[in-house]
Specification:
The complex is a heterodimer of chains A (about 150) and B (about 400).
Chain A (H helix, E strand, L loop, with lengths): L4 E5 L3 H13 L5 E5 L2 H9 L15 E4 L8 H10 L8 E5 L4 H9 L4 E4 L4 H18 L8
Parallel strand pairs in A: 1-2, 1-3, 3-4, 4-5
Chain B lengths: L1 H27 L2 H53 L5 H106 L2 H18 L5 H32 L5 E4 H15 L4 E6 L4 E4 L1 H18 L5 E11 L2 E8 L31 H11 L4 E5 L5 E5 L8
Parallel strand pairs in B: 2-4
Antiparallel strand pairs in B: 1-3, 4-5, 5-7, 6-7
Helix pairs in contact in B: 1-2, 1-3, 2-3, 3-5, 4-5, 5-8, 6-7, 7-8
The chains are: A alpha/beta (about 150), B alpha+beta (about 400).
Amino acid sequence: MNNKVILLVEDNQDDEDLAILAFERSRVANAMVVVRDGQEALDYLFGTAAHAGKDAKDLPELVLLDLKLPKVDGLEVLRQVRADPRTRRLPVVILTSSGEEEDLITSYDLGANSYVRKPVEFARFAEAIHQLQMYWLVLNEAPVPRG
Amino acid sequence: MIKTIEAMEQRALELARSVEEARRQALAETDDSIETLELKARELARFVETTREKTLLQSDQTIEALEQKARDLADFVESLRCQASLQSDSEIALLGRQARDLAISVEAVRMDARLRAETEIALLGRQARDLAISVEAVRVMTLLKSNTLIAALRESEKVTARLNDELERRVLERTTQLEAANRELEAFAYSVSHDLRAPLRALDGFSDELLRGYGEQFDDKGRHYLQRVRAGTRRMGELIDDLLRLSRLSRGNIRSERVDLSGLAQAVAAELRQSEPDRRVFIDIGPDLAGEGDPGLLKVVLANLMGNAWKFTGKKPEATIVFGRTEQKGLPAFFVRDDGAGFDMRHASKLFGAFQRLHPQRDFPGNGIGLATVQRIIRRHGGQIWAESLPGGGATFYFTLPEKESA
């Protein structure tokens, strides 16, 4: 299980640290890769630019994607991920502050697997992270063949 | 007489010239000169008339004098005849012929004088006519000028049309600005929802981690303060949520259908009882109350009004809450009445403002957003809301829901 990498796409340092804290609390120790804008997320997933040379087949087990991101926003990242056959089935969970109905609907329309609104209360956030991890990394059977 | 007529001619000529002059001026100048011209024309007409009268009078006088002379001559002839009754018939005949000639010449002079006077008068008349024609010409010119005026008027109409266009354009511009402002407001709400939350998460998350990971290094007081930080953070989070809900109310579309208000009130009452099962509150809900509106939003209205009634009767061992329908200000109005803490009507204006509260937080907790929300919902339905109360004497909130004209 430890080889399962989680990709966290998050530009806010606080939220990044809190997410890491929450993951630590849930005691499911997965390697966590953090990228801080939408372009870097795409580069990481497709093995381009700074991540050239990384095996594009070596995909994370789960992507936690914020919507409001520098350079390329979260919805565009999702669009490109779903448009590419290599990443089409990659589990992507939107993890955002936005409770806007439109963001929610657009995210699902673009093929998000889940939509989680970051609660203000850390205890609830930690619980949400724990649930996500349990579900996507333990219970869920991923459709992509492991490679 | 001839001299007088000549003088008149001269005067008429001068007048005509001055009229012509005025006419030329009028062509170049303002309406004032036309008025002067008309004045002069009237003056001339009066002058012609008086001259005519005078001339006729004068010629009549001349003729009368001639006739007198003829009569005198005839008398003289008669006296001669009487005196010289013995003189020869031939002399008498001669005198008679002379008298006849004289009569003829008198008649001729008379005719001539008449004729001359008539001619002069005719001439003056012609001049007056000419003058009238030139006045008319000036009038036509004036009309032309007024055509210019009309053209100017048309021009001003064009300007008005342009101004209207401009106005319309500005209305459109303003509408666009308002739409932009609205979009900005939405962006603001979005940013409130997204960006204001992030620091709160940090506050709550890190103070939670401090308590959990480093709690032993704080004493009780330190831990208490950290709890206070977290409570403040949560409260701020709730306020942001309330604010967002309020702003969404102004944005979304509202449905319109027949809503069973009695049923909604029953559901709200059940929720309230469930929240505090030990309280003794008699809730009286009128039967078959219905209104036109959005069921979800009207539920929010009743939940807030009845929730307030529930909250502000909380210090009483027994309380009564009534939801009913009555007539107020000549309109059918729904009301929620309680016998709780009430409020001072002097502060009623603050009642429906966002984040306005009439009671201290420690007495009755709340965000001061409920009635603002209720008012916004009622207004979006085209209704009105108002309240009556006495401190300690309970409160009654009235609201109206306009009925749709059944097509």
